[in-house]
Amino acid sequence: MTNPILTHQHGEILKITLNRPEAYNALNLDVMVMLSNTLASAATDDSIKAILITGKGKAFCAGGDLKWVSQQSADASSTLHKLAPQFHIAITEIRRMGKPVVAAINGIAAGGGFSLALACDFRVMAESAVLRQAYTSSGLSIDGGGTFALPRLVGLARALEIAAFDQPISSAQALAWGLVTKVVPDDKVIEEAMSMLEGLAKSALHSFAWSKKLLMESFNNTLETQLELERQGISDCARHADGQEGIKAFLEKRKPVF
User: Per-residue confidence at 73, pLDDT binned at 50, 70, 90?
Assistant: First the structure.
């Protein structure tokens, strides 16, 4: 049986590849569970400082495997009710992880693949790749944290437009709308994502972890709560070796070495 998730560690970067090219890397239960477990392990592995997620073949991920859903003994409603939480674990692992996660969108990212890409901290997209929300065209509502990510990235009005009309989004449009970080030639997408992560892996990752946490929580907190979290964060960072090196380097007028 082919492993639906491939992993390869390049130095301090873990590359995770969705490996169902014959199904455009669609997400079934096995893929979701293995992806969640892989991300959970990476989060606590000190040898890993950054993570890249991509797809094998022509697609990044075509979303939930509706063919697999239709083959289950239970009806689609019951199956999706049980399946969704497995996907949500993976999304939550990415969102809560203090390490940077980059999606290398090598081909179409639709449905759950669209949501998975949006959950990542940064997205490098191949010029020929396409994003598509896809859920509503199948009579379903958006899942996988897509309704959390979309309005935060593009605003409520455009998020509703994407949900209602479900038009394919080209790489140029995705970049203009702020859905992706960078667009590169197709044969450079992995290389560019790796380069981005290599740079991040050499930065003050404790600072990154706090910044990610603070930004994520800012949408739900009052100003007073957010300010208190910021106080805790900057104090904790100052105690950390990265913060101490950063302050020392500033005083010595040199580039810090983290």
Answer: confident
Query: Which residues, in sequence order, are bridge partners of residue 104?
Result: 124
| Helix residue ranges per DSSP H, the chain | 29-43, 66-70, 76-96, 112-119, 146-154, 156-165, 171-177, 189-201, 205-217, 223-239, 241-251
Q: What is the pTM of this model?
A: 0.94
Q: Measuring CA to CA, which residue among 142, 148, 140 is closest to residue 95?
A: 148
Question: How far from the centroid of its chain's Cα atoms is residue 240's Cα?
Answer: 26
User: Which candidate, 196, 159, 177, 166, places its Cα nearest to that of 53?
Assistant: 196
Question: Two tokens at 50?
Answer: 């950054």
Query: Does the pLDDT value for residue 192 go beyond 80?
Result: yes
- Asked if 102 and 50 count as a contact pair (C-beta separation under 8 A), the reply is yes
Taking a C-beta distance cutoff of 8 angstroms, is the pair 53, 101 a contact?
Answer: yes
Cβ(60)–Cβ(189) below 8 Å: no
DSSP reduced 3-state for 49? coil
Q: Residue 184 corresponds to which tokens in the numbers above?
A: 């590169």
- Can you give the pLDDT at residue 52? 98
Helix (H, G, I), strand (E, B) or coil at 195: helix
Average pLDDT over the chain, rounded to whole?
96
Q: Find, among 245, 72, 75, 219, the residue nearest to 153 by Cα.
A: 219
The Cα 153–Cα 179 span in angstroms is 6
Instruction: Identify the structural domains of the chain with CATH numbers, from first to last.
Output: 5-201 (3.90.226.10), 205-251 (1.10.12)
